[in-house]
């Protein structure tokens, strides 16, 4: 027995796929905006800490490097 998809079912499926695509596009844009907002907040906090704690930037850079290598040991090979 062969199942056939009639035109109205096809159109309903097409609309559903388009709606899901629109939804995912909107979600993606919202996530990007949230990430940008967090980046701005982090940079602001880093600037404030650099002003309040003279050694902050040096300590931050060292800690960031150590943490990055912990999560990705191959990073040293890539940057060398």
Could you describe the 3D structure shown?
The protein has helices at 7-52, 56-71, 75-79. It has three helices and no strands. The N and C termini lie far apart (63 Å). The protein has 80 residues and is mostly helical. It has one domain.
Keywords:
mainly alpha, 3 helices, 84% helix
Question: What order do the helices and strands come in, and which of them pair?
Answer:
Elements: H1 7-52, H2 56-71, H3 75-79
Short description:
The chain is an all-alpha fold and 80 residues long. It is built from three helices and no strands.
Question: Share of helix among residues?
Answer: over 70%
* CA distance, first residue to last residue: 63 Å
How many structural domains in the coordinates?
1
Largest sheet: none
Helix-strand sequence: HHH
Contiguous uncertain segments of 5+ residues: none
Global Rg: 24 Å
Structural class assignment: mainly alpha
**Beta-strand content bin:** under 5%
Coarse shape = elongated
State the helix count: 3
């Amino acid at each position: 027995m062969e199942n056939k998809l009639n035109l109205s079912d096809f159109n309903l499926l097409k609309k559903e796929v388009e709606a899901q695509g629109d939804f995912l596009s909107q979600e993606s844009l919202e996530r990007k905006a949230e990430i940008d907002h967090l980046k701005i907040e982090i940079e602001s906090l880093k600037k404030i800490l650099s002003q309040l704690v003279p050694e902050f930037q040096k300590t931050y850079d060292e800690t960031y490097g150590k943490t990055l290598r912990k999560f990705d040991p191959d990073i040293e090979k890539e940057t060398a």
